[in-house]
Amino acid sequence: MSENTVKRPHILTLDNRSLLTLTGVEDVAGFDEQTINVRLADCALVVKGAGLHISKLSLDSGDVVIDGRIGSLQYLGAAGRSLRSKLFR
Q: Class assignment of domain 11-78?
């Protein structure tokens, strides 16, 4: 990322573990009904669950809406390691 690139802050809203709204998304790296990989400015977010569906995707505005049964959310650092593993080395 160049120095002139502005990092988008992200906001995550989870409603009743069935509707996830994200802002600040740069890309969706991959998805299926059980896992969705989202790339944010300085990390990645892995959404796991069942029957997951991307109901809205706008990379221009950085908005993603995911519905389905959301079981877990995991942040991964830039190198693919979890942020927790970085904290507790």
A: mainly beta
